[in-house]
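Quick one:
INPUT:
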């Protein structure tokens, strides 16, 4: 059949996917441990088969396509999978399969097309399947089979056609006639009315024919039809009657089922040559002892039979004589699914000296009585009472079966188990008491079970394990106590279990774990299940409860109730050097210490899933010793990011599961540290489609080693229409030319302007910096808020070279001679070790006045300039009259012109000139000088009101016409320069 243009284009697209994205599959997940050979494609929205498998590697061996919505398989959809051996396309609403759909699949061995809507098959659909051995078309709508359908499948040995609409056996026979290796044909639940097939020869290899649940009225076939059949299932053909078997050769049948038919078993044996010992008598109407006795008489032709199956016969009683006429049963007597209420110490088996198994499950037995006085011992090895209504078991209930090795009492309502009920069962190896109502475990109950290897007590009502309960179970390897209400295990409660390898305590009420409890089996225990208990730690534990379990391999601590285990104490897993699997899901762990996993050097699998209400970040170094870890599952734990500090040592990690977390980005360099990684699941993570993930996008599209699960379906955060694998990254590339131009221009500008600013504005910038610091000074704010609390009357600003005048003249006249002024001098009052700028600020703002002793040395001092700057700031900006200028020497105006801040103060404020030798009377002038200075220091710091300011301004204007001598005032005058 020619390939249509549409199908060819789909195939090309699929091949492009395959070559572009070699290890990320759009609709399938590769099995992590199959080395890229097994793929599962489940629950995808894609409706085209070629696109579902289009990006899978041609070397795939197993493909499972389940629960999709694919209705059509086009020609050649799988032809490139030249190594494919197993293909399952189940529950996909499949309706149409083109001819040559499986072309060139020469290695295919199994093909499963079950649970679809196929109603018709093309005669060439299975062409090229030369090595196909198993084909299932179960649960479809097939009504017809082309005659040459299986001509290209010569190796087919199992064909499943049950649950279809086939109504003509001849059509089936014709289509399978060429299958020389066919052994099993399943046609159950079709619409066949007979097995007539005219002159068509069935394959001689056919040995198993299953035609249950049809509408057979007769076999209508040649007598030799079933000579090669060994297993024949005709059950649930309700219209099938005994005459249908007349003349049919059944001598070779080794298993025959006819339950739920209209066949009379006794008439049946009169018209057929079947060996009665190979007939399954289930649902054959053998409702009482007399009918079973009659059946036994028919079976007496043989000395022994393998099995006797009497299921679903509504038997209500089995008497001791029921099987008295039967031959010896070597295998199993199965009377399950009847109405039996009592079996009286299995008296029905009297005389059966070789029987191995007795199955009496699914009946109505309510009690097992004591059999202590029973002399007849039965050779039973397996005894099953499952699915009954047993409420109690009396003492010595199994005294008649001392050799039993498997005893199943599970799924009953046993609330009372006598302490001697199991006495004498020294050969018992497996005991199942699960799913009952037992509340107590007593010491003597198990004392005879010296050979017991498996004890299952799951889902009972046990609350306490008492001391010595299992003391005699030295051979026990598996103990299952899960699903009970155990809240306490007494010291010695697990003593005697020196061979125990698996201990299940899940689903109980344990609140703590004690290493002493495990002392008996320290060197044997391999599996410890503590899931769904109430274990929780609010503080550090003194010692690890697992410290001596040197051979433990599996530890399960999932889902502690009601809120999870919450925290893992330091060294909690100390000593578990052999542990390979650790389960911590559903625990809301909010903290994992950096040394928690330090001893788990052999760990292969770790899961911390579903801690989203707790853990949000692992501590650096918390996984540092897990160098052998192969699988790490961190699903839904609220993790924010991956970091090398946490994951840097996981060099052997193969699978990493990160679904349902909140990270918006993943660093590629962290992923590169996982040298052995081949499986990464990052579904349901809000990865942002932005430049910060550009490298991650590039990594996902070009890696040939790590399989990213459903990469092509990962949406962009906030926009489900865009996908992560193809979001636009062009905006992330920088135009280097443009940025280099602007960078160069900025550098040239800086190098041109900075020197100019340095020359012209150096001091202004520096002063501005100090003022800025002062502005934010906590002490400045405190001083500014309350001037009345000033510590000093005046801060004296002077140069070092004028210190002799300050000490010899200023200090004695203002602090001595009856004056009460308190002065602040830098050499005396500055706080040692404090920043000098902070000292100056504190002095200026901690004094009512600032007195600047001006000289030529003063003008050249950087610190003096800073002091007058700060004082003038308060004068002009805060409007506080705090600045006083005292000139020690005559300085011409032309020398002051370069000191802008100084001239601005002199134009607005009065100043004093120290009377020198040019005065006619220096002593009088100096006396007047000190008087005027003291008066100035006593005035407040608030500026005059506007009226006084106006008058002073007029006065200044009138005096401003004086000669230049105003620049050099005498000591008996105070001048206003305007």
């Amino acid at each position: 059949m020619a390939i249509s243009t549409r199908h060819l284009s789909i195939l090309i697209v699929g091949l492009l996917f395959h070559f572009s994205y070699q290890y990320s599959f759009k609709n399938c997940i590769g099995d992590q441990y199959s080395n890229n050979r097994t793929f599962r494609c489940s629950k995808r929205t894609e409706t085209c088969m070629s696109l579902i498998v289009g990006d899978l590697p041609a070397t795939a061996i197993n493909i499972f396509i389940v629960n999709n919505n694919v209705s059509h398989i086009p020609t050649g959809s799988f032809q490139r999978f030249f190594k494919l051996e197993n293909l399952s396309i189940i529950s996909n609403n499949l309706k149409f399969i083109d001819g040559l759909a499986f072309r060139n699949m020469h290695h295919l061995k199994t093909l499963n097309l079950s649970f679809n809507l196929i109603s018709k098959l093309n005669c060439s659909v299975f062409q090229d399947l030369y090595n196909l051995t198993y084909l299932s078309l179960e649960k479809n709508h097939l009504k017809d089979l082309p005659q040459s359908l299986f001509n290209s499948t010569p190796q087919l040995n199992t064909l499943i056609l049950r649950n279809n609409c086939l109504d003509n056996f001849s059509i089936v026979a014709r289509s399978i006639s060429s299958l020389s290796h066919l052994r099993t044909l399943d046609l159950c639940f079709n619409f066949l009315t007979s097995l007539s097939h005219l002159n068509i020869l069935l394959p001689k290899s056919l040995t198993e024919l299953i035609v249950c649940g049809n509408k057979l009225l007769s076999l209508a076939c040649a007598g030799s039809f079933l000579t090669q059949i060994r297993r024949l299932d005709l059950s649930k053909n309700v219209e099938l009657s005994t005459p249908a078997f007349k003349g049919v050769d059944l001598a070779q049948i080794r298993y025959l089922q006819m339950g739920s038919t209209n066949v009379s078993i006794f008439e049946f044996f009169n018209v057929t040559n079947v060996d009665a010992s190979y007939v399954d008598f289930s649902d054959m109407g053998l409702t009482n002892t007399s009918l079973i006795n009659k059946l036994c008489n028919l079976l007496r032709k043989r000395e022994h039979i393998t099995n006797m199956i009497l299921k679903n016969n509504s038997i209500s009683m089995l008497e001791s004589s029921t099987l008295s006429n039967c031959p010896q049963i070597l295998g199993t007597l199965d009377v399950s699914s009847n109405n039996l209420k009592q079996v009286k110490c299995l008296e029905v088996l009297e005389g059966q000296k070789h029987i191995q198994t007795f199955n009496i499950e699914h009946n109505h037995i309510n009690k097992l009585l004591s059999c202590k006085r029973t002399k007849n011992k039965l050779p039973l090895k397996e005894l099953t009472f499952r699915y009954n209504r047993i409420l109690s078991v009396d003492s010595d209930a199994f005294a008649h079966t001392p050799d039993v090795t498997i005893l199943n009492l599970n799924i009953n309502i046993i609330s009372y188990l006598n302490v001697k009920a199991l006495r004498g069962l020294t050969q018992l190896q497996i005991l199942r008491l699960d799913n009952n109502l037992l509340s107590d475990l007593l010491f003597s109950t198990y004392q005879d079970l010296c050979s017991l290897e498996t004890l299952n007590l799951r889902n009972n009502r046990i609350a306490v394990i008492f001391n010595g309960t299992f003391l005699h179970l030295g051979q026990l390897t598996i103990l299952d106590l899960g699903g009970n209400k155990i809240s306490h295990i007494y010291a010695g409660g697990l003593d005697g279990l020196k061979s125990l390898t698996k201990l299940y305590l899940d689903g109980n009420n344990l609140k703590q774990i004690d290493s002493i409890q495990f002392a008996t089996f320290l060197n044997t225990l391999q599996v410890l299940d503590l899931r769904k208990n109430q274990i929780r730690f609010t503080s550090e534990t003194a010692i690890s409860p697992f410290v001596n379990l040197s051979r433990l391999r599996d530890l399960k601590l999932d889902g502690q109730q009601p809120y999870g285990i919450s925290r893992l104490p330091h060294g909690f897993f100390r000593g578990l050097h052999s542990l390979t699997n650790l389960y911590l899901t559903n625990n809301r762990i909010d903290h994992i210490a950096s040394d928690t996993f330090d001893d788990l050097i052999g760990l292969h699998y770790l899961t911390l899933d579903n801690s989203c209400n707790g853990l949000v970040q692992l501590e650096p170094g918390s996984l540092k010793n897990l160098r052998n870890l192969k699988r790490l599952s961190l699903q839904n734990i609220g993790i924010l990011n991956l970091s090398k500090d946490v994951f840097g040592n996981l060099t052997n990690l193969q699978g990493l599961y990160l679904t349902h977390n909140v990270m918006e980005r993943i660093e590629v360099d962290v992923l590169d540290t996982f040298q052995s990684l081949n499986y990464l699941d990052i579904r349901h993570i809000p990865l942002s489609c932005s430049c910060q993930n550009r490298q991650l996008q590039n990594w996902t599209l070009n890696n040939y080693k790590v399989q990213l699960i459903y990469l092509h379906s990962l949406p962009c955060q906030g926009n489900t229409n865009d996908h992560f694998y193809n979001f636009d990254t062009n905006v992330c590339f920088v135009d280097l030319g443009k940025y280099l131009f602007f960078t160069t221009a900025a550098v040239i500008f800086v190098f041109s302007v900075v020197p100019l600013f340095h020359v012209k504005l150096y001091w202004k910038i520096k002063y501005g910096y100090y003022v800025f610091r002062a502005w934010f000074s906590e002490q400045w704010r405190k001083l500014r808020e309350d001037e009345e609390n000033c510590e000093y009357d005046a801060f004296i600003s002077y140069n070092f070279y004028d210190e002799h005048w300050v000490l010899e003249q200023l200090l004695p006249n203002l602090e001595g001679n009856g004056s009460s002024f308190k002065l602040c001098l830098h050499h005396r009052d500055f706080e040692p070790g404090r920043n000098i700028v902070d000292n100056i600020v504190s002095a200026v703002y901690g004094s009512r006045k600032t007195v600047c002793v001006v000289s030529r040395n003063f003008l050249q001092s950087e610190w003096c300039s800073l002091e007058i700057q700060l004082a003038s700031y308060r004068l002009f900006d805060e409007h506080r009259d705090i600045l006083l200028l005292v000139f020690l020497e005559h300085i011409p105006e032309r020398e002051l012109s370069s000191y802008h801040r100084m001239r601005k103060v002199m134009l607005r404020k009065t100043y004093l000139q120290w009377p020198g030798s040019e005065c006619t009377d220096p002593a009088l002038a100096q006396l007047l000088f000190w008087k005027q200075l003291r008066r100035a220091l006593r005035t407040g710091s608030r500026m005059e009101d506007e009226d006084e300011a106006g008058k002073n301004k007029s006065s200044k204007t009138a005096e401003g016409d004086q000669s230049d001598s105003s620049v050099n005032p005498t000591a008996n005058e105070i001048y206003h320069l305007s």
